[in-house]
Write a structure and sequence with these properties.
By secondary structure, the protein is mainly alpha-helical. The chain is built from 2 helices and 2 strands, in the order αββα. α1 runs antiparallel to α2. It is elongated.
């Protein structure tokens, strides 16, 4: 196993844990919320209950981490290209 493969596996593992934690936090927020619904960016109305909030948290964390991982991969490839 190469060093980059090992690093990718570690980052994916950490990312998975972050997504699970975000989902659990969303579950607790939805359980303890006093409101009935929230409007996101004036476009989508989301009911404030445990399951939708958990899904929202998990999806938001997944999108943010995917963008971060893509940026790191892009920068890594640019650096490798410049070395060659």
């Amino acid at each position: 196993m190469s060093e980059s493969d090992r690093g990718r596996r570690i980052l994916l593992g950490v990312g998975g844990i972050v997504v699970l934690v975000a989902g659990l936090i969303g579950l607790f927020v939805g359980e303890n919320s006093a409101g009935e619904s929230i409007t996101l960016l004036g476009v989508v109305t989301l009911p404030v209950s445990p399951v939708p909030m958990a899904l929202y948290g998990a999806v938001l964390a997944t999108v943010a981490l995917t963008a971060l991982f893509v940026a790191v991969e892009f920068a890594s490839r640019l650096e490798d290209r410049d070395r060659a």
